[in-house]
Design a protein that fits this description.
alpha/beta, five-stranded parallel sheet, 7 helices, 5 strands, about 45% helix
């Protein structure tokens, strides 16, 4: 099995390099090529960066985006601009990396004047969910401003794997 994984990874990298460019290749190169040992598998999962009640799964957001006649959320991409340019959720607005002060300032500026009950969805997609440096600061900033309907799209691996490859609506550019 290990040899099979080592053989398949270069082909996977090449296949993803075409639609997702350099960012996907770099992400895959950082990914382990073997499964963790039994001790690592037995470790409990880290707590989510936001409360469970604020987590929105990709299939739920895809349904909302595609369903006519229902309230559409304000969708804000709070990660890396290169990823947004390569692929993003249709109608999403690029804000900037929320792990940086400039990104938080841009987020605050964008939502200033909105009703506090506005449905807002945040997402990043730069890296695995539990390591993302952007979702928690963005979520906490909006909550501290009094927004009550903030949800964060849970992207377990990255945007390409958890959204684009699943065939959910995607736009490019920006």
């Amino acid at each position: 099995m290990k040899n099979m994984l080592l053989f398949a990874v270069p082909f996977l990298v090449a296949a993803l390099a075409i639609p997702f460019g350099g960012a996907a290749v770099k992400a895959l190169r950082r990914a382990p090529t073997t499964s963790p040992g039994p001790a690592a598998q037995a470790q409990p999962e880290a707590p989510p960066p936001v409360p469970n009640s604020a987590i929105l799964m990709p299939e739920e957001l895809a349904r909302i985006v595609q369903t006519r006649g229902i309230e559409k959320p304000l969708i804000l991409q709070i990660g890396v601009h290169l990823l947004y340019k390569e692929a993003h959720i249709p109608g999403a607005e690029y804000i900037g990396a929320a792990s940086k002060q400039e990104g938080i300032e841009q987020l605050r500026k964008r939502v200033a004047g909105l009703p506090h009950n506005k449905f807002i969805v945040l997402y990043c997609g730069c890296c695995p969910w539990f390591r993302c440096p952007n979702v928690k600061p963005a979520y906490e900033a909006l909550k501290s401003m009094g927004f009550t309907r903030v949800q964060v799209l849970r992207i377990d691996q990255n945007f390409g794997t958890d959204w684009v490859q699943k065939g959910y609506p995607t736009a490019k550019g920006g």
